[in-house]
Amino acid sequence: MITTPNQLFEIFNKLNIEYKNYTHKAVFSAKEAEHTYDIVPGHHCKNLFLISGKKKDIYLISMSADKQADLKTLSNKLEVKRFSFGNAELLELTLGIKPGSVTPFALINDKEKKANVVLDAEMLKHEYVNFHPMINTASVVIKSSDLIKFIESLGYKPTIISIY
């Protein structure tokens, strides 16, 4: 079952996570989202859906929108085989979302807990961060501490590293 934004907000309420939802026109990349910076407060973030190795281990990486992730450096830092981008089919099967809507909130749809969650340490230094609520026509602002609370409530232990 795929979670809708409203179902996500119900979970936030149960976890006592304060949030604010902002609607905007569809965006498919961090670059396209720059037009939302004037209307959506908080630190702007982006997400990478990556696979590694022959087993196709899945990684969801959340980081500051202004950073460029060097996949080779990132794989070395995480001590995994070479990274490549996961395809749309795997994204939908694992996280129940479409490309352009990648978000740590979609971990709620990962019933088999296949994703390895990696968060950028510098991103978490900001009090408020924002991500899509399963759709790319909105952004949700929450406290970075509540992002970790949400992820841990799903049974994940995120890896926190500095991504340059």
What report would you give on this structure?
The chain has 164 residues and is of the alpha/beta class. The protein has one domain: YbaK/aminoacyl-tRNA synthetase-associated domain (YbaK protein). Helix content is 24%, strand content 27%. It is built from five helices and eight strands. It has helices at 5-14, 71-78, 88-95, 121-124, 144-153; strands at residues 20-23, 43-52, 57-64, 83-85, 115-120, 128-131, 138-143, 159-161. Strands 1, 2, 3, 4, 5, 6, 7 and 8 form an eight-stranded mixed β-sheet that branches. The termini are far apart. The relative contact order is 0.23. The model has no long low-confidence stretch (mean pLDDT 92).
For this structure, what is the CATH homologous superfamily? YbaK/aminoacyl-tRNA synthetase-associated domain
Helix/strand class: alpha/beta
List the domain count as a whole number. 1
* Major sheet characteristics: 8 strands, mixed
* Helicity range: 10-25%
Percent of residues in beta strands:
25-35%
SSE arrangement:
Elements: H1 5-14, E1 20-23, E2 43-52, E3 57-64, H2 71-78, E4 83-85, H3 88-95, E5 115-120, H4 121-124, E6 128-131, E7 138-143, H5 144-153, E8 159-161
Parallel strand pairs: 2-6, 3-5, 5-8
Antiparallel strand pairs: 1-7, 2-3, 2-4, 6-7
Summary of the model, kept short:
The chain has one domain: YbaK/aminoacyl-tRNA synthetase-associated domain (YbaK protein).
Give short descriptive properties of this protein.
164 residues, alpha/beta, YbaK protein, globular
